[in-house]
Amino acid sequence: MKRVGRLTLMALLLAAAGLCFAGNASAKEPRISKETAQCLDCHEGMPGIVSQWEDSAHWNAGVGCYECHKADKSDPDAMEHYGFQVAVIVSPRDCGACHPREAAEQEASHHAKAGDILNTKDGLLGQTIGGEPAVAVGCRQCHGSIVKVREDGSLDPATWPNTGIGRINPDGSKGTCSACHTRHRFSKEQARQPESCGKCHLGPDHPQKEVYEESKHGILYRAFKDDLNMDHPKWIAGEDYYDAPTCATCHMSATPNQGVTHDVGTRLSWNLRAPVSKRTDNWQQKLDSMKDVCSACHSSPFVEGFYQQLDAFIGLYNDKFAVPAKEIRDLLMEEGVISKGNFDDEIDWIYWELWHHEGRRARHGAAMSGPDYAWWHGIYDMAKAFYNHLLPKAKEACEKAGKPEVYEKILAKYIDGRPEHQWFTKGFDPKRIEQIKKYYKERYNQDVK
């Protein structure tokens, strides 16, 4: 139930005195604590924050500023603030005092580990090839900073503000609930909307938001957004809504057979991030959980057919492009054709974008029913990079290094003996060309040259 209007100073005083001011004049337990009333007395000068909180479930539950921000003197980020010990950051560990299950699921999730990527080649690209200021406002705003506390108890502006989902907090906990449930409403309704995920899940290497918008799911969401009842407390697919799913529907929200989860990996049976896709741990159980979500709207043959197509697509990605490309690059390094340094050869960049950009777009397009991302932004771009950039550059590098036999080895192992690559060395099959011409003639009554 949303509260209408602004808190007045009189209402705060009444609350502190133990009177209810939620439309009932009778004496009851105070809506807010006397500590929070003092916070509000000063922070009325920040009307946006106060108004957001007034419209929150926290307000209705009597949870205020002090209940969330109170700290112990021993806390690393504790500071004295007008007679109170408080901390600016409300960490998942703090939220877990009232929401223990949600906090535990989040801490165990892939989201909480998002900061680990900053110690990989992604981090090298940002910090070395880009620069620290770019990392602070770019990479870490999604993956999370390691928040540092200065000697005076304030937070280091090089690491804060930050709501990255894998943020390391001063108390050692990982992540931030406000990455999805934005301060200070902490709204379920807002977190259920795909735009919440779009802060991080978009762009050339992980365009889930764009893929979703292209898909039938995204089209239906835009058409029937106002009918999805996203403010309902339980929000079960097929019961509370049925017109369209959002990101939360598939990855986190309840079905008639399973509850809400804050571990976003519990329904993912493939790793679509890695250079070569592999099944995740307990993949069959995770697949069954996701199929259960799909079954809220789709028939069993439809669901089974979709996953057969997805598995075949990932097999194509792995076998035709990802594995050969990785092994070709590794062979060039082993043979001394290119160095073993990172991103000091053009082939390093070609290979990186082949799997990290085109390959991810392809796989997410297939997994989320985005045909243009599966093909034109995905496999087509991968094929172009593989045939038109990687292989010619490999040949050029071998010749420049005086080792043309290495390229011959590449052709013999990865290209010539593989029927899916024969067009590259022998051209298109004439019989296949004639079949295409016949198809166009029969379907479109049109000759193709």
Polypeptide structure, described:
With 449 residues, this protein is mainly α. The protein has five domains: 9-69, no CATH class; 92-179, no CATH class; 202-293, no CATH class; 300-422; 423-449, no CATH class. Helices cover 51% and strands 1% of the residues. It contains 22 helices and two strands. Strands 1-2 form a two-stranded antiparallel sheet. Helix 17 packs parallel to helix 19 and helix 19 packs antiparallel against helix 20 (404-415). The radius of gyration is 27 Å and the shape is globular.
User: What structural class is derived from the secondary structure elements?
Assistant: mainly alpha
Radius of gyration: 27 Å
The low-pLDDT segments are 1-28
Percent in helix: 40-55%
Largest sheet: 2 strands, antiparallel
Q: What is the average per-residue confidence, as pLDDT, rounded to a whole number?
A: 91
Total domain units: 5
Q: Quick one: overall form?
A: globular
The beta-strand count equals 2
Number of helical elements = 22
Pfam families: Cytochrome_C554, Multi-haem_cyto
Keywords: Signal
Organism: Geothermobacter ehrlichii
InterPro entries: Cyt_c-552/4 (IPR023155), Multihaem_cyt_sf (IPR036280), Multiheme_Cytochr_ET (IPR051829)
